[in-house]
Design a protein that fits this description.
With 121 residues, the chain is an all-beta fold. The protein is 0% helix and 59% strand. Strands 2, 4, 5, 6, 9, 10 and 11 form a seven-stranded mixed β-sheet that branches. It has a four-stranded antiparallel β-sheet with strand order 1-3-8-7, with no helix packed on it. The chain is elongated.
Length: 121
Amino acid sequence: QVQLVESGGGLVQPGGSLRLSCAASGIFFRVNDMGWYRQAPGKERDLVATITSGGTTNYADSVKGRFTISRDNAKNTVSLQMNNLKPEDTAVYYCNAHIIPSTFYYDMEFWGKGTLVTVSS
């Protein structure tokens, strides 16, 4: 019914930039908070950045000043601009959103399948 599809992952050199995008598709009433999480091999899935429907942002300390999260409410998309990438940023990045589906009028959490970001020379 509702899906999140990420795009933009890939291989980039240290110091480079990459932009991730996530689009919510399906039939839904409203998209509330959206965000990005990441998980490195053998590690827990950690928060990267979140953004409310009103545009309030929150960042993990490790990415503050380097990453920028944004959203387009008209298009139901959220993006993550990643600058000055470091090897420790290597992980699978997951899109996250709280959405009220039209078929079930309660706020639900959805996850994308993930997109791999590899920072290496």
